[in-house]
Write a structure and sequence with these properties.
Number of strands: 8
Number of domains: 1
Order of helices and strands: HEEHEEEEEE
Largest sheet: 4 strands, mixed
Radius of gyration: 16 Å
Number of helices: 2
CATH architecture: Roll
Distance between the termini: 48 Å
Strand order of the largest sheet: 2-1-6-5
Strand content: 25-35%
Helix content: 10-25%
Length: 123
């Protein structure tokens, strides 16, 4: 008997599973180094645009609007490959990043290490 999760895991077509807010978490990873650059959210339109254009497009939860990465900063992400996890509820974009990915000016949003005492130190 095929379990429902087996159907999702073995699916041959995209069946992205968005959360109750219509969003799916998306990790951007440097296609060459493997470095994790950022976590963002996509709705169905952002995912469609990303796959069609090859330019990372996300959903801004604060502005409630689509945004193409780099549209104001020039720090764009060209999508080399898009992947989806086994449950089809998280997306991984392997990208070629132009400039920093983080709005702080850091290459990656994950530039701080959490210490044993909950302190944050630059990694």
């Amino acid at each position: 008997m095929v379990e429902p999760s087996d159907t999702i895991e073995q699916a041959k077509t995209l069946g992205a599973r968005f959360d109750a807010n219509g969003l799916i978490p998306t990790i951007a990873q440097d296609a060459h180094s493997g470095e994790v650059l950022m976590l963002a959210w996509m709705n169905a339109e952002a995912l469609r645009l990303t796959l069609e254009t090859g330019r990372a497009t996300y959903w801004s939860r604060s502005r409630q609007a689509l945004w193409a990465k780099g549209e104001t900063s020039g720090h764009t992400q060209r999508v080399v490959e898009a992947r989806i996890d086994c449950d089809q509820d998280a997306v991984l974009l392997r990208v070629e990043q132009t400039g920093p990915a983080c709005h702080t000016g850091e290459r990656s949003c994950f530039y701080r290490v959490i210490g044993a005492d909950d302190s944050l130190v630059r990694g």
